[in-house]
Amino acid sequence: MDDLDFTYQLADAKGVVVLPGSVFGPGGAGHVGFTFVTQPEEVIRTGVRLVAEFIEELERSRGSR
Question: By three-state DSSP, how is residue 45 classified?
């Protein structure tokens, strides 16, 4: 899965929006960028938890193949 697919699937599955690293050029491909702006700490913690859940779900689904 490339960084763009990851960002779309994360947004769809968990409602968390991150930037695909490839928008910053070829060196960013395969990475994602987080922007916290001025969100309250609890919102940031929830977002990080949801990203972790998404990654764990991806790992589980790949293990079942």
Answer: helix
